[in-house]
Batch of 2 targets.
Target 1
Amino acid sequence: MLVIMFSALDQLSKYWVEKSLPFQQQVGFIPFLSWFRTYNEGIAFSFFSSFSSWALIALTVIIIIFVLWLWKQSSRTQVFTRFGYALVIGGAIGNLIDRVALGYVIDFVQFHTSSWSFAIFNVADSFITVGAAIIIFDELFGGRQSASGKIPN
């Protein structure tokens, strides 16, 4: 259910962007954050933009299947890790929907200062990044509980 909700939130944000923002024109929101609608034909930071859309779709599907497998391997007691997997999968599906339907991914969030700008990204990218951070943090510091509820030595 969470995966569907995260994918839907991403798609709703992109629908709003497509209907509301001019293409490749910065629209200030707060001093360090702007909206900037653009299209990414690659994956994160425009890597693999020379790959065909179908190759990127296949790569995304493989990644989703792998993360689903990891999710199934995790214990139900690993609540944060499992939430992280839901974020990653929901975000990946959100970007996959764009790539299949449009041949590119809609990006629109831009962090910046007067002399520096971070890569432009979207809600799905945020879900993937936050989800990966939660998984890593929980795996490193969360500790694992056994079936009895006790933390193993």
Note: Strands lie at 27-30, 33-40, 105-111.
Target 2
Amino acid sequence: MDLPHIRSVLERAGVEFARGLTPSELNAAEQRFGFTFPPDLRSFLSYALPAGQRFPSWRDLDSPELAGQLSWPCEGICFDIEQNEFWPVEWGVRPTVLDDAFAIARAQVAAAPKLIPVCGHRYIPDRPYVSGNPVFSVYQTDVIYYGGDLENYLCNEYHYYFGTPQYALPAQIRPIEFWSWLVELNGRRAGA
């Protein structure tokens, strides 16, 4: 990624930046929340830290907004279980007790790669620990790819300023355990 170019374009789009995170700040977030920043996100956040209400406040690890962003994917799944009768057949028979259904969903999410907030409800998985993981848009169980990788995501999110198509994904996107399955499941439900 051409980090100076990306920062310049994002600044034209109105994104404000603070100084990049130090290695100790990155490590503190990883230890606190039990994930590992993938190398491309680590490089981006080290170069310059996007700031503002839609971006995670990685310097304030006690921030309620950050806690909300981190819990958003699992809470959204539980919301759809309760309110929208979401229950994939792959999980077996749905328990009649709602808390038992939530426990199954939480176990599924806990076993999956952790989603790290990038901006708003856009997330990148921490596994595999390589550059090039896709970025997901997560709104309850409406999970889609919003970028084939971090750079593609930024181009999609800020397409007008990059001069790129509004929503262009690469032909090949790395599959991510559980989250890519939700994308496929979402596509099957939309086509039903």
Note: Residues 64-83 form the longest helix (20 residues).
